[in-house]
């Protein structure tokens, strides 16, 4: 062993979930280590669409989403950058009368959580959004939602965690973990070949799409599949899209950044669980549908397309909370395409669990228990 380390809490994975957890714990005075096998924020957390959106989430995610959303207002003070976070509002479009009815039902469910959803249709909608195509019949606006630049936000959380005292190690892959009575013994390998042994009282599994490898050390891997959301960006266009846009039922989302580029997502790319690539055919099909909603995109030049690897669970909810096999092991993975907004809130919740032993945010729906017996490990 080239180095032996000792922590109160060791976080595995330097995506936004792991980095925000390390930051929150370090700010509460704990000795925190974070091991990231590549670079912090280089996986899903740094390549996602950038939607900071509560609207459209499952009911059980709303309390956590609301808590997380409050943190986004404090990014400059917390991580030293606003991360290009814009409170643009999120407009969820309806393409049929049935969609409009579903948006109305969703608003009734979600508004008690403080989302302030406003339904728009008919001539009012048309007058307010002359740049939307005939395919959009109406929509639901969540004024407090927005979007941000994941490439800026995610590494900033890791830098802030380091500045707060966490020992953040990149190019450091966790290769084995055992729970040895009172504490975790973690083996890791730096890209240089150096071997590290770390002992920690608590372990946080924030390994994203690879969370099952860590959960598997403790006999509790879950049914999770990798997904590869397909994304692309246009050349800069004159500014016209006021909001972060989505559609009821999913499948198309778009936002325009201050420089004028329109970031669009929809459909899936392909991958092997480790690496991923966008699919031209997906981009072409979704872009055609997007032009029905946003006719001004018709002649736009596409500059780049990409995707990333994300872990998706059967019920689209993440696993957040205590292990059922091992004391002081916390899981936070499987965010199923929706972890960007949530991650800062997840960091706070996990720091509550470590420091206070409980959290005021309801997380029972995210328990690993819901998957029943372990599928090996
Ligand atoms: C293309 C795309 C678009 C998306 N769009 C949105 C969106 O608009 N809004 C939204 O809310 N969500 C979105 N998501 C989902 C969101 O990005 C994820 O839910 C979130 O980033 C998950 O964060 P994470 O920290 O769990 O995972 P990650 O960012 O993947 O971080 C996990 C980290 O663990 C590391 N790791 C794994 N195994 C080990 C090991 N053995 N040792 C050390 N390190 C390890 C990995 O290298 C990785 O850096 C999107 C995802 C993708 C891929």
Automatic annotation (TrEMBL):
Pfam families per UniProt: DAO
GO molecular function: any one? Answer: oxidoreductase activity
The highest taxon in the source lineage is Bacteria
> What keywords are annotated for this sequence in UniProt?
Oxidoreductase
InterPro entries in the cross-refs: FAD-dep_OxRdtase (IPR006076), FAD/NAD-bd_sf (IPR036188)
* Gene3D superfamilies in the record: D-Amino Acid Oxidase, subunit A, domain 2 (3.30.9.10), FAD/NAD(P)-binding domain (3.50.50.60)
Q: Which Gene Ontology CC terms are recorded?
A: cytoplasm
> Can you give the residue ranges of the FAD dependent oxidoreductase domain?
8-353
- Database matches in PANTHER family: FAD-DEPENDENT OXIDOREDUCTASE DOMAIN-CONTAINING PROTEIN 1, SARCOSINE DEHYDROGENASE-RELATED
The name on file for this protein is: FAD-dependent oxidoreductase
Organism encoding this protein: Caballeronia mineralivorans PML1(12)
């Amino acid at each position: 062993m080239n180095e032996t380390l000792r922590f109160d809490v060791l976080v595995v994975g330097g995506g936004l979930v792991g980095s925000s957890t390390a930051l929150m714990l370090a700010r509460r005075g704990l000795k925190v280590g974070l091991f990231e096998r590549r670079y912090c924020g280089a996986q899903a957390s740094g390549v996602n669409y950038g939607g900071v959106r509560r609207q459209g989430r499952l009911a059980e995610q709303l309390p956590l989403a609301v808590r997380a959303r409050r943190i986004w207002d404090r990014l400059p003070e917390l991580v030293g950058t606003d991360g290009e976070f814009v409170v643009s509002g999120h407009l969820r479009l309806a393409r049929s009368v049935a969609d409009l009815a579903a948006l109305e039902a969703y608003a009734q469910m979600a508004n008690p959580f403080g989302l302030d959803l406003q339904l728009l249709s008919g001539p009012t909608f048309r007058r307010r959004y002359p740049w939307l195509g005939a395919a959009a019949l109406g929509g639901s606006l969540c004024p407090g939602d927005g979007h941000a630049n994941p490439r800026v936000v995610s590494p900033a959380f890791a830098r802030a965690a380091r500045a707060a005292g966490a020992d953040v190690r990149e190019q450091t892959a966790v290769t084995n973990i055992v729970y040895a009575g009172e504490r975790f013994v973690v083996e890791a390998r730096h890209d240089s070949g150096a071997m590290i042994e770390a002992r920690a009282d608590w372990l946080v599994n924030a390994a994203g799409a690879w969370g099952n490898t860590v959960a598997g050390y403790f006999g509790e891997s879950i049914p999770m599949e990798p997904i590869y959301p397909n994304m692309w960006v246009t050349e800069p266009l004159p500014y016209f899209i006021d909001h972060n846009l989505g559609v009821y039922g999913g499948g198309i989302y778009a936002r325009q950044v201050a420089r004028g580029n329109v970031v669009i997502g929809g459909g899936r790319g392909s991958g092997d669980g480790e690496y991923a690539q966008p699919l031209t055919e997906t981009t072409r099909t979704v872009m055609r549908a997007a032009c029905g909603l946003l006719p001004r995109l018709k002649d736009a030049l596409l500059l780049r397309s990409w995707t990333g690897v994300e872990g998706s669970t059967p019920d689209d909810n993440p696993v957040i909370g205590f292990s059922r096999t091992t004391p002081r092991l916390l899981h936070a993975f499987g965010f199923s395409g929706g972890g960007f907004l949530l991650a800062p809130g997840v960091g706070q919740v996990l720091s509550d669990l470590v420091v206070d032993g409980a959290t005021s945010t309801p997380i029972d729906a995210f328990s690993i228990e819901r998957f029943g017996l372990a599928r090996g490990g």
